[in-house]
Structure of XRE family transcriptional regulator:
Amino acid sequence: MGLTTSAAMFPMVHAMAKVVTAQAKEAKRIHYIQEWMEHRGMRPADLVRELGVNKGTVSKWCKGDLPTEDNVRALAGLFEIEPVELFRHPLDDWMSRMFMNRSTEQLKTMVNILKAAFPEEAPSQPIQRGSSPAKGKSKRSQPSSA
């Protein structure tokens, strides 16, 4: 009975394995070309025109295919970044640059500024832009202690 049940379940298990494998391949994207395009306000057609590649090539890149080394260099030049930056999300990039090549003293100052700007005990209500936290409070509006 065990063998018959296992044999009957194999097609279902095999189909599930295909789905999991496909999802794993999708999650294994190794570059951020599409995000860099969006970050620079470009569309696939812009890459086709600027790099002289065909539409199908750009489509494959947007689906996760890895460009050739020459195309990686060309993309980096177009986006005005180093080739290695194509493998990092564009929003991660500014943060790493901000902290790169700083002295210990500069890093400490930056940390102190961030701590002052974003205290650990933040107010429970966000402060509205253009208003101060004390605005609108008067002695009459506060409950009396008596």
Summary: Helices lie at 2-27, 33-39, 44-51, 55-62, 69-79, 90-99, 104-117.
